[in-house]
Amino acid sequence: MSERRQPELALFEEERTGTVRKAGSQIIVDNEFVLLRYHPKAKIVHHEFRRFIHGPVFREALEQGVATLKLSGATRWLSDDRRNGPVTPADGEWAIKEWVPRAIAAGWKYWAVVLPDKVLGQMNMKRWMDTYAKLGVVAQAFPHPEAGMDWLENVP
């Protein structure tokens, strides 16, 4: 079950290993599937999928990310999908019809993606990157979250 927090809550200094650590980050969602954070200084929404995620928990994490974009005025999103697999057809249909229009309307412009470890997930995510790029989101793939964070911190 997802622990839901309001995006404006929970300031902390993250001490986890193997992830991007930013002082003053806000934890939005933290459960066995996903860690969703907001980095207010850089105005970056950042998710780390901890395992294959789909269905309601996937959608809730993305919905909380959109709420964070909207509340904060952020335009940048870092997706750490190394431990995820391909997006399911049902989640993909939901994302393109419902979530993406809301995310773009909330201000989403830049997307840094750390691709899944597995080739099938990589191919799937590259297709999503191409799809969102056609809708105006500038998408770039990176080998690790730190590189994606560096890029996002330097886009306009």
Number of strand segments: 7
Helix/strand-derived class?
alpha/beta
Radius of gyration: 14 Å
How many distinct folded domains?
A: 1
Largest sheet: 7 strands, mixed
Described by the principal axes of the CA atoms, the overall outline is globular
What percent of the residues sit in helical stretches (DSSP H or I)? Answer: 25-40%
CATH-derived architecture:
2-Layer Sandwich
Which CATH class?
Alpha Beta
Q: What is the end-to-end distance?
A: 37 Å
Mean pLDDT: 89
Strand content: 15-25%
**Count of alpha/pi helices:** 4
- CATH fold category name: Transcription Regulator spoIIAA
- Tell me the series of helices and strands, N- to C-terminal: EEEEHEHEHEH
Q: Unreliable stretches, pLDDT < 50, 5 or more residues?
A: 1-18
Query: If strands are numbered along the chain, what order do they take across the biggest sheet?
Result: 1-2-3-4-5-6-7
- Would you identify the CATH H-level superfamily? STAS domain
